[in-house]
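sorry to bug you again but im stuck and you know this stuff better than me. what follows is a protein written twice so to speak, once as letters and once as structure tokens for the fold. id like you to explain what the token line says about the fold, in plain words if possible. anything you notice is useful, everything is just below.
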Amino acid sequence: MTQELAGKVTVITGAAAGIGKAAAELFASEGARLMLSDVNGEGVEAVAAALRAQGHEAQAMATDVTSEAQVGALVAATVGAYGRLDCAFNNAGIGHTPLSLLDVDAAMFERYLAVNLSGALWCMQHEIRVMLAQGGGTIVNTASLAGLAATPKMIPYTASKFGLIGITKSAASEFAGQGIRVNAVCPTSTDTEGMREFIATQGVAPDRMFGPMGRMGTAREIAEAALWLLSDRASFITGQTLVASGGSSGQTG
């Protein structure tokens, strides 16, 4: 059976839970050699330890992607451990809390941009430097359907995800001729720990988060989309946004 990432050194950010954890488990099963990171150091080390116990190659490093220095240290540690960097799934991010535009303050807005947008920028910057030196590589960023379609009461989150799609496309265009592919996966409501907490704290009926398929996506389904984009099966795909939304367009009317 062909393993899509056999032997490929792969960084995953935001890997302690949710989509990132699902990606770690899936990519490991597909033969990847993993460096996992998360701001939750204990959580991400537990994920890596579980994978090592199953015979996979997985290391972990606590990383705050808002710190360019910490991101640089993560990429350097990956190259130090494995000698190269083939794939990166820049998945770290924070979810939205419904809030009117009129109530957004500077600190909140800057926090969303720092994690969801600047964090991915620092990751791509350090990853691409390594990939250029070795002759190529593949990157997938976790964006959102909210980065493609207008959604009310999601100003900071929407701004960060629209921006992320923009820098994904720009990076893809800049480095396409140098063997580096850059794409984004755009989920909508996904059944993760964070989503369950959001539903509980906001008092939202779960079925309000459903799309045309009548359910939310699973973290594994989003990880599968990222896997395809990272794999050689998507070798002619760059600068694209793969929408994983169960048929939802994100349009509000």
